[in-house]
Fold:
Amino acid sequence: MITEVKTPSRSYEVISKSGALCSLIPTLDKVARGSRIAIITDDKVDSIYKGRIESILGDAGYRFVKFVIKNGEASKNPETLFAFLEFMASEGITRSDCVLAFGGGVVGDLGGFAASVYQRGIKLIQVPTTLLAMVDSSVGGKTAVDLKAGKNLAGSFWQPFGVICDTDFTKTLPKDVFRDGCAEVIKYGVILDATLFERLKSGIDGCLEYAVTRSIALKRDVVEADEKDTGARAILNFGHTFGHAIEKLSRFEVSHGSAVAKGMLIASSAAGQLGISDLTDQIRGILLSYGFDLSCPYGASEVAIAAMSDKKRSGEAINLILPEKIGKCVQYPIKASELCSLLEACL
Ligand SMILES: NC(=O)c1ccc[n+]([C@@H]2O[C@H](COP(=O)([O-])OP(=O)(O)OC[C@H]3O[C@@H](n4cnc5c(N)ncnc54)[C@H](O)[C@@H]3O)[C@@H](O)[C@H]2O)c1
Structure:
């Protein structure tokens, strides 16, 4: 299945299906024929899929170099970014060459950022290996590293030249990492697509390719309308404002997907309190059926303060994304002073 993404900065194809990896060489031939390929991956993905990408590239006559980072969010920092840039420079990677990010969102964000700044920008192919990276981080062009002061504080917009989402990679994911990605897929259903939401109610296993491809198309629509995140793209933050707050309060002990699940429930409950909708039971039901722990160990004021420190806050107000009905959401700006009392009624 091919989803075409057309943004002002670049148009590209996202190929998503079981076995999509066989489209890697045709994609490279189209956008980077003759380039040397700078693979970035992490040690876990590298050890599970040892040599897989390398043999595909080698058999097709592509020359490549490989840079392996330690797996996990702790690697998504300026030091790893610059180590990869130095590596590419020492290997003689040129402006006509191509970065290939093979891994989850951490590898994708680092590889994307590096491609956007190396010699002022080189080609980038994303080969995501987690569900989250397939449906979210590999599409849309946002790249970032974390700074000491917070997550994703330095980054760029750099659209890939092609994305290969082979759903077979999800077979080796740990259960909790797979579930984290499910939170994002459920998010797309709640905010944009009632049919997707309905199908997800009976579990994702029987509709994985559909769920991945549909999520990518929904993200594509949002990104095409607002590539640089100045308005409409904010709806993708459903569950994330409170989710990021919980992640931060837990010192990142609570995983991103679990925190987003808790955040989606809080946002649904807030929509109920504000008389916007009555979806809390439905949203709680689907999240519980995927095995999410929906408890929130923090009080209203802690969550409100942490949410107000989100980088997406504008002035004294924060823009909540609230579900109006399944498949439709609204943006609801709220003042810091009102957020705490709203949360007291929700938690
Ligand atoms: N740029 C964006 O638009 C965007 C959007 C959402 C999230 N993100 C970023 O994505 C990151 C999270 O991504 P993630 O959840 O993929 O985390 P991740 O990249 O850390 O991967 C999670 C774990 O799964 C392992 N793994 C990856 N693929 C595997 C496979 N096929 N089989 C077995 N293990 C595998 C990794 O080694 C890692 O240990 C965060 O840094 C977040 O900020 C970016």
Notes: The chain has two domains: 2-172, 175-346.
